[in-house]
Amino acid sequence: MTLYIDTTRRAARVELRRGEKIVDHRTWGNTPSVGGELIEHISNLLSERNLTLRDVKKVVVNPGPGHFSAVRTGIVTATLLSFATGAELYAEGNDSPVDIVEPVYSDR
Q1: DSSP 40-87
Q2: Counting beta carbons within 10 angstroms of the beta carbon of residue 50, is it exposed (0 to 12), middle (13 to 18) or buried (19 or more)?
Q3: pLDDT tens digits, residue range 66-94?
Q4: 103 lies in some domain
Q5: Which of 13, 33, 41, 91 has the fewest CB atoms within 10 Å around its CB?
Q6: Are 64 and 104 spatial neighbours (Cβ–Cβ below 8 Å)?
Q7: How far apart are CA 108 and CA 106, in angstroms?
């Protein structure tokens, strides 16, 4: 199972994917409290599918561009989940796993 995280847009989004197919997702307003909401949405998404973080083998995160805090929140969350579970970490658009996702910040 793949967990996709995107906190770079006005609406934050998490998805569960099996291969290229989106199995389930959550979208909500990207506010300054996106970090706490992100963990809550991931937890709910997994539990509603009777899954745990151990079922996640790959974590993909959108590295931006986006606002500083929002981009960092998504990348840090994805990185910590990857390290904690042993899942491979990917920056969206990369075909190979990475140890560190390099953020891309917008000019605004």
Answers
A1: HHHHHHHHHTT--GGG--EEEE---SB-HHHHHHHHHHHHHHHHHHT-
A2: exposed
A3: 989 999 999 999 999 999 999 999 999 88
A4: no
A5: 33
A6: yes
A7: 6
